[in-house]
Amino acid sequence: MPKQVDHHERRETIARALWRVVEQRGVVRLTMREVAQEAGISLGQLQHYFASREAMLSFAMDFASEQASSRVGRGLAELGDQLHPRDVLRVMLTEMLPLHADARATSRMSAAFVLEALHNERFHARARDGLLQGRALIEQLVRQAIADGRIAPDRDPVAETNLLLALTGFTTLIELDVIEPRDVLTAIDQHLDRLFTADDRPTGGGRSDAAGDERSRAGAA
After folding, report:
1. Does 47 lie in the same domain as 65?
2. Domain-located, residue 176
3. Quick check: 171 and 98 in contact, CB under 8 A?
4. Residue 139 belongs to what H/E stretch?
5. Any long-range contacts for 27-36 (C-beta under 8 Å, 24+ apart)?
6. 196 forms bridges with which residues in the sheet?
7. For residue range 110-128, what is the model confidence (pLDDT) as tens digits?
């Protein structure tokens, strides 16, 4: 009997092959032929799943977003049931940065997608909508923390949200070896410490352990 093909698994295999092409060779080498070769399949087999480069890139970006969300979910689960908003923000921010292999692959995939979005209206709309949703979630966390007295009431939630998102700009500095990942984590922690009131910062083991684990992963990456 012919071997049954798991089509979802095959699509994921193609998506990861696309990530590797982007990560190792750059977006200029991102052709369907290059991806097929990296995935170990024929160009015809790849075209059975994706009729165009655009369709392939769209799926790879969706898969990258799912993987990033899963990493955030796992990071939050490790903190336990009593989640402090500072720790939630920290996990969200650090998983957007190329601090370890998985995050680096999805970060470079996102950068490639943004480059495509600058010249593709459909990609532009999708990228913008995704970023707006992420920004709205962070602003909601900030507003709730202000309402709960965890952040000083005179802080502007819009400005603070924008400043938090600006921390993801460390991506370029990390990728070009301008700043060490450990120093980036220190900067993020210090920013969050300034944002949250001194008497409401996490004092349990969750935050310190998570910070230590993240620094270990960053150092090993």
Report:
1. no
2. yes
3. yes
4. helix 121-147
5. 27/111, 27/112, 27/115, 27/116, 30/57, 30/112, 32/56
6. 151
7. 888 898 899 999 999 999 9
